[in-house]
Amino acid sequence: MDKPGRNDLCYCGSGKKYKKCHMPIDQQKEKDKRDWIAAAQFLRRDLLKFARDERFAEAFAQALPLYWNELYTIDNAEEMSQDEALRYFDWFMFDYTLPDGSRPIDTYYADQREELSSVQQDVLDKWMAEASAAWAYTLTDYDAEKLVLNDFMTGETFDVHEPGGRGAVEIGEVILSRLVPVYDHLEFSTTAAYLPAAEITNLAEKLAKAKQADGEAHPEATQLDFMRRNNHLLIHHALEEAKVQGRPPVAALDPNRPDKAVQKVVHQVKKRFQ
Ligand SMILES: [Zn+2]
Question: How far apart are the first and last CA of the chain?
C-alpha cells in the first residue's frame, strides 16, 4: 500500500489529514516491527551462543552424531561448515530433548529471560509457543520476498518472508528449515537447506513409516512431538541422497546469494521505482 503524504487525506476515509489520523499509528507499527526484527536477530545469536554453554557439553556430544548420522561427531565437529553449524545449533536448541525431557531452549528461558529487553522477551515467548520444528516444506509459489510453502507431510500452507527470495529452489522442491513468527510474519529461524526434485521421491514413504513407529511408541504424541523427535531423519535423508548424487552433504539454499547489506541496498533501490 502506498502511504499518503502528511497533508493528504487519510486512506481510512475519515476526511482528516493523514498526519492527524493514521500517521502516528502507522509510524508506531513500523517502529514495533523494526524492534521485533532486531530482537529476533539478537535472539538467534544469543540462542546459538547459549548452545555452547558448558552445561550442555555432554548432550551436545550425544546430539551431534544423531543429527548428522555420524558424519560429524564430537571428534570432527569443527569440520562443519558455517551453515551446517547454524542448522545443527538451531535444531539442538529448539528440538533436541535432554535426558530430563526438556529442551535446551527451556533452560535458556528459565535462565536468561529476565536478562532480555521486553521486546526480546516477547519474541522469545512467541517462539516458545509458536515456532515450528525444523521441518520439510515444499515450495509452491513465491515472489521477490515471500515464499509460499506447504508442510511436506500435512500440506498446511505458510507464507514465509524471505528477503533473499527462493535462491536456487524451484517450485515443487523441498526446503528444510524452521519457521518462526516475527511480528506479523514468518521467517526462517536459520539458514535453510533444500532437497532438489530428484531427491524427494521416497521421502514421503520414509516419513510415513517414521510416523507410524513414533505413534506406536508414543500414542499421545502430537504432530509437533513427532516432528521434534524425528526431524533428524530429514538430514539423514539429505545425506543419503547426497552420496547417491555425488553432491556435497547438505545443499545450501543458494551459495551465491548476496549478503544482507547488498540485499538491503537493492531493496531500497527497488522501492524508489515502485
Ligand atoms: Zn485514518
Answer: 11
Across 14-18, 25-29, 215-219, 241-245, least confident range: 241-245
CA of residue 12 to ligand 1 center, whole Å: 4
Q: What would the pLDDT profile of 196-211 be if each residue is shown by its tens digit? A: 888 998 999 999 999 9
For cell 548452545, what's the residue? 51
Query: For residue 26, how far is its CA from the centre of ligand 1 (angstroms)?
Result: 10
Q: How far is the CA of 17 from the centre of ligand 1 (A)?
A: 8
Neighbour tally for 98: CB within 10 Å: 16
| Burial of 163 from C-beta contacts in 10 A (0-12 / 13-18 / 19+) | middle
Residue 15 alpha carbon to ligand 1 centre in Å: 8
Distance between CA atoms of 12 and 195, rounded to whole angstroms? 45
Contact (Cβ atoms closer than 8 angstroms) between residue 222 and residue 232: no
The string of DSSP letters for 41-69 reads HHHHHHHHHHHT-GGGHHHHHHHHHHHHT
| CA distances (Å), origin 208, targets 63, 211, 229 | 23, 5, 14
Distance (Å) from CA 183 to ligand 1 centroid: 22
Q: What is the DSSP letter of 18?
A: G
How many angstroms is it from 9 CA to the middle of ligand 1? Answer: 8
Q: Give me ligand 1 centre to Cα 54, in Å.
A: 53
* 135, 152 Cβ separation under 8 angstroms: yes
Ligand 1 centroid to 202 CA: how many Å? 53
